[in-house]
Structures are given as structure tokens and as C-alpha cells.
Write a structure and sequence with these properties.
It is found in: Nucleus; Chromosome, Centromere, Kinetochore. Its main location: nucleus. Belongs to the SPC25 family. Component of the NDC80 complex. By secondary structure, this protein is an alpha+beta fold. Helix content is about 70%, strand content about 10%. The protein has three helices and four strands. It has a four-stranded antiparallel β-sheet. β3 and β4 form a beta hairpin. The chain is rod-shaped. The chain starts with about 25 loop residues before the first helix and ends with a helix.
Length: about 250
């Protein structure tokens, strides 16, 4: 059987000799080109692998950075939450403090209102008391004037009674009285015998001064503090001056 002739395929347009797709082409040349192409593909694949490897390394580093950033961010978020909890606690304490201040302010306002009412009442009472004091002062002044006038009217009679009794009383202090005695010495009726009675203690009488000194005066003062009879004590002292004068004659 005769071999069939191989058909020849040609390009419709003119191309360079190295791209001649004629079935009659040199297969060695084609294989060489294919080998060159495969080498180029391997080189490109190797370069791409290297690029992908570097990209993988970069991606891994980026992921690690992101993870570190995530840890830092989570830590910052937790710190922020803690600060927020602290702030909420402080805010709650501030609210409670503010509520306490409001309650205290209300109580203080009530106390101020009560004090104001009391002050108003006290002012009214003070005004009333001042009017009463003024009325009492006017009445006292009137009574004092009456007493002064009466004293002036009674002065001659008092002097006459003092002369007849031979006894004159003079208030040195509110709690101290001078007692002056005359008509004791027959030779000298105007001779003065005196005694100072002091009851500033409130419970006991004392005689800090006696002229001339009177014997037995301490016993008389002791009896006065026992029986509290001042008038009888004065009579006993006067009699003691007379008896002492007679005994010395």
C-alpha cells in the first residue's frame, strides 16, 4: 500500500521563518524552542515561587504584627473598660454624695426656717420685754424719786431717833454694815463705839472690825450664827461695850 502524501499546511500570511508551522519544519529546532520555552516557564515559576515565598513571609510577619496589635488593642480595651468601671463607680459615688448633700441641704433649710420662726418669736418677745423693762424702769425711777423725797422728809426724824437710840447704821457694801453706837459713856455721850458686820459668806456672819476691841465678841458671833437673831446680837454687843466700860472704871 502506497504511503499517503503528507498535506502541507501554510499560513495565510507571511511570517518569519522561525514561526513556520509547516509540517515539513525541522523538529529539532522546534524542540529546542520548546525546551527554551519550558526553561523560561520553569524560571518564571521559580521566580513566582520565590515571590510567593517572600509574600508568605511578609504575610506571616503581617499576621504576627496584627496579632501583637490585637493583643495590645485587647489590653487597651480592657484597660479602657477598667477605667470606665472606675469612672462609673466614681459617678455613682458622686451621685450618692450629691443626694446626701441635697438631703442635708433640705434638713438645713428646715432648720433655718425653724430658726427664722424662733427668731421672729424671740424678736416679738424681746420687743415686749423691752416695753416691760421700760415701764419697770419708769416705775422704779418714780419709786426712787418718791423714796428720795420721803427720805428727805424723814431725815430729821431719823436723826432724832438715831440720837435717842445712840445707834446709827451705814451700809458700806450690800453685804457689809457699819454699826455706830453713842450714849454709852456717861462721861462722853458722843463717844463712838463701832462694829462692822459682814455676811458676804451667805451662811455665816463675821465681825472683821470692832472699835474698841470687845472681849467675848467671838462667843457672841458664834451665838449669832447659831440663833440667827441679829437684833439681839446688836443689843448684846452694845451691852458688852457698856459692861466693859464700867469694868474699866
Amino acid at each position: 500500500m502506497a504511503r499517503e502524501a503528507k498535506p502541507t499546511v501554510t499560513h495565510s500570511q507571511a511570517v518569519e521563518d522561525e514561526f513556520n508551522w509547516s509540517l515539513e519544519a525541522d523538529w529539532a529546532s522546534v524542540e529546542k524552542k520548546i525546551g527554551t520555552f519550558l526553561v523560561s516557564i520553569d524560571k518564571w515559576a521559580s521566580e513566582q515561587k520565590h515571590i510567593l515565598k517572600e509574600m508568605g513571609i511578609h504575610h506571616h510577619e503581617s499576621i504576627k504584627i496584627m496579632e501583637d496589635s490585637k493583643v495590645d488593642l485587647e489590653r487597651e480595651i480592657e484597660e479602657e473598660r477598667e477605667r470606665e468601671r472606675i469612672m462609673l463607680k466614681e459617678l455613682e459615688e458622686e451621685r450618692e454624695h450629691h443626694a446626701n448633700l441635697q438631703r442635708y441641704n433640705q434638713e438645713l433649710q428646715v432648720a433655718v426656717n425653724r430658726a427664722t420662726e424662733q427668731q421672729t418669736t424671740l424678736d416679738s418677745e424681746l420687743i415686749k420685754l423691752r416695753h416691760e423693762m421700760m415701764a419697770l424702769k419708769i416705775d422704779k425711777q418714780r419709786q426712787k424719786k418718791v423714796l428720795v423725797e420721803q427720805k428727805e422728809l424723814d431725815a430729821p426724824e431719823v436723826q432724832k431717833v438715831e440720837y435717842l437710840l445712840g445707834w446709827k447704821i451705814e451700809a458700806v457694801k450690800p453685804t457689809t454694815i457699819w454699826n455706830r453706837f453713842t450714849q454709852i459713856d456717861p462721861k462722853d455721850p458722843e463717844r463712838e463705839f463701832s462694829m462692822l458686820i459682814d455676811f458676804s459668806d451667805g451662811d455665816r456672819y463675821a465681825v472683821p472690825n470692832c472699835s474698841p476691841p470687845l472681849g467675848g465678841l467671838q462667843d457672841l458671833v458664834a451665838q449669832l450664827n447659831e440663833d440667827r437673831d441679829l437684833y439681839t446680837f446688836i443689843k448684846r454687843v452694845r451691852a458688852g461695850f457698856r459692861d466693859q466700860l464700867i469694868a474699866a472704871a
